[in-house]
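Appendix B, record 7
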Amino acid sequence: MAMTRDELLDLYRRSGALLDGHFRLTSGLHSPGYLQCALVLQHPQHAEALGRAIADRVRDLRPTVVLSPALGGVVIGQEVGRALGVRAIFVERQDGALTLRRGFIISETDRVLVVEDVMTTGGSTRETIQVARAAGGHVVGAATIVNRGKQVDLGVPHVALIDIDLATYEPDKCPLCAQGMPVVKPGSRPVAT
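Structure tokens (predicted):
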């Protein structure tokens, strides 16, 4: 069963995951809105439903493995893998670069689907695609729960359950900073420099 935009936004609101304020995103950009997917994904029934919804949208790509960036993409990647009946593995940041977690293998016959929770600039998705290709895999697409409204060219098909346009600003052009509003850094990894 497909999840509608309104149902997805309602799920985020009920979970307290749709936040208003002044946020510094992982990309370094500032925004008045933030989607904290972990607050939704902490509930296994929601994670399973979102994973199934993504799987239904990408099944035609015929992936043989799901690859996600840690930390934010691991839970949703696992659920997409479960719904597709394929392995779900992840990359992690070591010495500033994403690398395939020790023990995980991607072969040249693998059709890799990169799965993340939220995409803003596409930076970590691109890095994850590069890791998959360097390991010999064929990247067939990327999928996210949320695309923050930017059309990002990843060089592969991209599916998002929801596109939501939350404004972003360069720090030196941020109207919230100009108003003196304190900035908060939510999320799971340090801000890009």
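Remarks on this record: Strands lie at 18-24, 30-35, 65-69, 87-94, 97-100, 111-119, 138-147, 158-163. The mean pLDDT is 90.
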